[in-house]
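User: Could you go from structure to sequence for me? I need the amino acid at each position, not a summary. Structure tokens:
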């Protein structure tokens, strides 16, 4: 006797299900509790009980029944692909046209050595130009006569920011009327620079917080003007040169060719001395410990100044440097979770900056605790570090203790650690101890009385570190190549060759050699120029070239695609983050960093182009060092890309002077042939120099055809390899139409289209009307279906992509298709290659109905099987769709087909969004494996500001009681406030509210962030078996089986009757993340090597110039005068910025 179906709450009408023993209700295993196959045996033993003889009801289908359905599905797919895909026929077409092409071989070792040599030659030309510039600069400065009385009107130059400042009526320079010295230039658009340029002049950029009229700056402008002719001569010798730049230690940037400055609308904080290339070129790597006094006397505005100063100091460090930050009072402790020196990369510096904001002032000052902690950090040899310049940076408001005993113990007599001291805030303390500490330890003493002094005084220490480099002379004149970063003038991603420029002057006969660095010379190389030296289309869709530096950061890689622009940080994407990390790649990375050659075939995981799928593939890695640089070059090839086709159309070219449009197969590219031969999309490649690019493929094809009417097959302006292969594949795919597609009725098998795509750049879609709904990339190498088909055997299903935030598919208005594709493998003379992919586009609705029939108990095209009252029947996917869920899910976990009509509009969604309970069971039973990774190149909208309103940043606001207190007017707080008010009137940028600063700035509209990506792929289970989703009365039976020769999983399950077992939902969509825990990552740092040169010591260094106090105690008279000036609105003429080095007067 049949037992009514189990219920959970209200019962559901429909055929009864046979009774079966259900285990006790309990929570289902979570995502981490993967259940091995052996544990399923008790569940499997229950299944025969469900089909007891004589039961007059529907029962869950037996395993052999579902295996039968699976075979029918496999046969149907295979049959359609054999008839319409035309794989075998396309093989025959290639063989029939064997005289039209040759099979060429990619020899990895020769290829990678050639490309490395070409890159070396390219960079060497820039090195020669750099050396000419650096030598000329040193000679010009040596010959220059310092002028004390120089005036602005004496200097004529093009101020790159002049146009922007003229457009801004609030600009300080408009108010000063200092435009008499500025040239007015005409510019022409230059695509190489992606900018308007003038080749006859240089341009000058001066930071906002430096007064252009100071004597130091005017003398700098005077002698650097002579560089203009050297820049021009360099370009004459090498027309491919891009930006040539001299970054001065005074902050002046002179670059060629002249171009208007691309400044943000509100605040331009650009200072060349803080650019990655300048920092890397101005000094050797650094091990730095920053210690911050947080005793009780450090409070309010002084503590804020210290926090800002530390953040600015961190920005002077590059990835070659190591750092830690600690706070101290009676005791010292790290401000973050980092307990030792860590690499000063973007993510670590972010941790420091966030931690510094949490510092709280309390206790008493204990310099000894701070310095002992710092020295212990620098003496720790069990960690990775720079092992070059060692320094301690102390920020304090003042104190009496000189801690001489600490220096005697740790640093004397060799003084291998430099000590820099910073007196922060306005105070009346004796600064002599701070000066003594710096002078006694080869460092420098600085004062930061207000926010305006922070940037200038947290970067001047680089001049001190540059002394041993200058004194080393020619030995230190070595070109360094930087990490990848974003060019400030819009060139895109670049690397820069840098060369330090030294001061060769002497104060008099027999005097010591000057030890100041004048600046850094730089020449940019666009990454696109380097990419042009690498082979593209001969490597196939999944082959590529990459390059890394000594940090393991990629210089070239197809996955190097930062989404943000105009950021001030370098682009530091590690090779192991650009790809999916594994032990083999770690080994390859280490070998490349060590400058070795190598070759290794590995089995690894790759992410699909649309980042929805993971494929397990075989790749061949080959690598060599790029000589004379710190870079190493690698080549990645799949085994099927060892060979490639090269068209040989000599038989068709009867007369060289005929245009290409007269070639035999060219007619099949013409739109007039599309109706009979199918629509042709051509890859938007650079076939000829004069070909106008377009994002619209129809327009691009039109431009191509027009150009081909004029171009001969051997034209020097065209890439014959690309051009001839395109013509070859046009004819090859047209023959496929002729032999296979044209005579077939696609409607008979519910097909919307058939298609073929080739390495040569042709995508042919038949019939022509199907092209209206074709959304795949016209460049096959950038089409996910194409690349995945090459990497997978069999038929690859690709449902339409659906974003969970978008509306479901509207089946009523549009016909939705599912792509099925497979690679065409050729074997020619023992050489195997895959030059094309073919496929069909299934009509979703029609195939969903067909799916029901194939997964049913029908034996022929008869009516669905009926089950009488006294007979026993198994449920199937057609008759029992109210009780039985049948789906096809692809290898990424996305829904492809369902027997539930209401789920058709969810095709393409991650299955957990359709049936979370069932997807979790599939994962827990090892049908799927999960891979998590991080995208460090994402762009995110800025976080909304807190309760800051439009208040000026970091400014102390006195109370009414303060104003009424005479003592307050003579206090340090009043003095500091007035200094900030005065600075704010002169330099508006520091006094703007944060929201105003953000206005019009692309940096604040979007910022770089980390996104966590999760992909699923087939696990280790290949067998077909049943299981139970265990949840008492809510338990469900399901069956899952892989379909042979496809990327599909066939799943049959009881529909859920209740939802108490919704234990969790697997997530697949990309989510915002803080990335992996940095505190754990630094405990196992990735392998890297620093630059092979280090200049941190020279016996002849003069350390007597170590800083002197420049502040003065506030007086009532001065304060009253300042207040009157403020009330009258007449700010005094600003004086030159007080530089740390008085000897800047050269």
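Assistant: Here is the amino acid at each position, in order:
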């Amino acid at each position: 006797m049949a037992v009514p179906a189990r219920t959970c709450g209200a019962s559901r009408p429909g055929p009864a299900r046979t009774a079966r023993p259900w285990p006790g209700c309990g929570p289902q295993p979570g995502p981490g509790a993967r259940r091995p196959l052996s544990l399923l045996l008790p569940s499997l033993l229950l299944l025969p009980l469900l089909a007891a003889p004589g039961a007059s009801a529907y029962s869950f289908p037996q395993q052999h029944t579902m295996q039968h359905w699976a075979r029918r599905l496999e046969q149907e797919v295979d049959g359609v692909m054999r008839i319409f895909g035309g794989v075998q026929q396309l093989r025959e077409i290639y063989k029939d046209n064997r005289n039209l092409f040759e099979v060429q071989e990619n020899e990895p070792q020769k290829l990678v050595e050639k490309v490395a040599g070409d890159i070396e030659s390219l960079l060497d030309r820039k090195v020669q130009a750099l050396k000419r510039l650096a030598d000329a600069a040193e000679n010009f400065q040596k010959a220059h006569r310092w002028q004390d009385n120089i005036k602005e009107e004496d200097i004529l130059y093009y101020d790159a920011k002049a146009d922007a400042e003229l457009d801004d009526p609030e600009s300080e320079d408009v108010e000063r009327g200092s435009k008499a010295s500025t040239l007015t230039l005409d510019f022409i658009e230059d695509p190489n620079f992606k900018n308007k340029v003038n080749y006859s002049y240089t341009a000058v950029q001066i930071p906002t917080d430096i007064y252009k009229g100071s004597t130091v700056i005017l003398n700098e402008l005077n002698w650097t003007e002579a560089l203009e002719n050297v820049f021009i001569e360099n370009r004459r010798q090498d027309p491919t040169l891009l930006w040539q730049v001299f970054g001065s230690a005074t902050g002046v940037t002179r670059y060629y060719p002249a171009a208007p400055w691309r400044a943000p609308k509100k605040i331009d904080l650009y200072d060349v001395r803080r650019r990655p290339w300048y920092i890397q070129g101005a000094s050797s790597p650094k091990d730095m410990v920053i210690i911050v006094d947080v005793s009780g006397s450090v409070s309010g505005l002084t503590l804020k100044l210290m926090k800002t100063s530390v953040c600015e100091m961190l920005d002077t460090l590059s990835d070659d440097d190591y750092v830690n930050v600690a706070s101290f009072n009676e005791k010292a402790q790290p401000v973050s979770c980092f307990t030792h020196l860590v690499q000063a990369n973007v993510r670590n510096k972010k941790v420091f900056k966030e931690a510094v904001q949490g510092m709280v002032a309390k206790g008493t000052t204990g310099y000894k605790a701070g310095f002992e902690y710092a020295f212990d950090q620098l003496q720790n040899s069990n960690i990775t570090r720079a092992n070059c310049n060692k320094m301690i940076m102390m920020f304090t408001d003042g104190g009496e203790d000189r801690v001489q005993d600490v220096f005697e113990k740790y640093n004397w007599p060799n003084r291998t650690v430099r000590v820099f001291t910073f007196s922060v805030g306005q105070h009346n303390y004796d600064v002599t101890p701070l000066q003594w500490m710096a002078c006694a330890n080869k460092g420098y003493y600085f004062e930061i009385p207000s926010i305006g002094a922070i940037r200038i005084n947290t970067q001047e220490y680089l001049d001190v570190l540059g002394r041993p480099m200058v004194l080393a002379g020619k030995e230190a004149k070595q070109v360094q190549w930087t990490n990848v970063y974003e060019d400030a003038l819009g060139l895109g991603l670049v690397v820069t060759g840098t060369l330090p420029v030294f001061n060769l002057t002497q104060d008099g006969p027999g005097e010591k050699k000057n030890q100041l660095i004048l600046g850094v010379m730089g020449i940019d190389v666009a990454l696109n120029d380097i990419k042009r030296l690498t082979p593209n289309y001969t490597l196939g869709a999944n082959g590529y070239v990459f390059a890394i530096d000594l940090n393991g950061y990629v210089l070239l890689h197809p996955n190097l695609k930062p989404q943000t622009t105009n950021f001030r940080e370098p682009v530091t994407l590690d090779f192991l983050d650009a790809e999916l990390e594994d032990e083999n790649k770690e080994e390859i990375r280490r070998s490349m960093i060590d400058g070795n050659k190598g070759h290794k075939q590995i089995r690894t995981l790759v992410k699909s182009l649309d980042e929805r799928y993971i494929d397990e593939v075989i790749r061949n890695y080959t690598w060599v060092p790029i000589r004379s640089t710190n870079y190493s070059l690698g080549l990645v090839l799949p085994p099927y890309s060892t060979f490639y086709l090269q068209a040989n159309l000599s038989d068709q070219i009867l007369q060289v002077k005929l245009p290409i449009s007269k070639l035999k197969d060219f007619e099949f590219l013409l739109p007039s042939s599309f109706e009979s031969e199918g629509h042709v999309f051509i890859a938007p490649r650079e076939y000829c120099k004069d070909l106008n690019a377009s994002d619209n493929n129809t327009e691009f094809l039109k431009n191509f055809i027009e150009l081909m009417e004029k171009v001969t097959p051997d034209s020097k302006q065209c890439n014959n390899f690309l051009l001839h292969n395109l013509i070859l594949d046009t004819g090859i795919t047209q023959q496929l139409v002729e032999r296979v597609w044209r005579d077939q009725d696609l409607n008979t098998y519910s097909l919307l289209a058939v298609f073929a795509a080739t390495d040569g750049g042709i995508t042919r879609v038949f019939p022509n009307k199907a092209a209206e709904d074709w959304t795949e990339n016209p460049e096959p190498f950038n089409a996910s279906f194409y690349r995945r088909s090459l990497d997978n055997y069999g038929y690859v299903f690709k449902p339409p992509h659906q974003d969970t935030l978008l509306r479901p598919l509207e089946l009523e208005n549009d016909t939705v298709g599912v792509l099925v594709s497979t690679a065409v493998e050729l074997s020619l003379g023992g050489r195997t290659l895959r030059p094309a992919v073919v496929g069909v586009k299934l009509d979703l609705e029609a195939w969903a109905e067909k799916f029901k029939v194939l997964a049913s108990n029908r034996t022929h095209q008869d009516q669905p099987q009926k089950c009488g009252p006294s007979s026993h029947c198994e449920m199937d996917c057609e008759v029992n769709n109210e009780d039985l869920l049948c789906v096809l899910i692809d290898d990424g976990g996305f829904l492809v087909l369902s027997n539930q009509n209401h789920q058709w509009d969810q095709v393409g969604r991650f299955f957990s969004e359709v049936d979370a309970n069932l997807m979790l069971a599939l994962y827990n039973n090892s049908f799927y494996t999960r891979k998590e990774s991080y995208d460090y190149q994402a762009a995110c909208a800025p976080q909304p500001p807190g309760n800051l309103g439009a208040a000026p940043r970091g400014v102390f606001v006195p109370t009414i009681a303060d104003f009424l207190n005479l003592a307050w007017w003579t206090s340090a707080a009043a003095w500091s406030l007035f200094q900030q008010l005065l600075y704010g009137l002169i330099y508006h940028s520091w006094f703007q509210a944060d929201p105003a600063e953000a206005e019009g700035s692309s940096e604040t509209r979007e910022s770089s962030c980390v996104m966590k990506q999760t992909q699923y792929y087939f696990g280790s289970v290949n067998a077909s078996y049943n299981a139970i989703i265990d949840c008492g009365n809510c338990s469900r039976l399901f069956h899952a089986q892989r379909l042979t020769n496809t990327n599909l999983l066939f799943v049959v399950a009881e529909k859920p009757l209740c939802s108490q077992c919704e234990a969790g939902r697997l997530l697949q969509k990309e989510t915002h993340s803080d990335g992996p825990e940095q505190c754990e990552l630094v405990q196992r740092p990735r392998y890297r090597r620093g630059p092979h040169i280090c200049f941190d010591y020279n016996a002849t260094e003069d350390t007597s110039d170590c800083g002197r106090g420049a502040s003065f105690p506030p007086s009532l008279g001065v304060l009253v005068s300042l207040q009157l000036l403020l009330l009258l609105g007449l700010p005094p003429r600003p004086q030159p910025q007080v530089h740390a080095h008085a000897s800047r007067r050269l």
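One structural detail worth keeping in mind: The CA atoms of residues 600 and 621 lie 5 Å apart.
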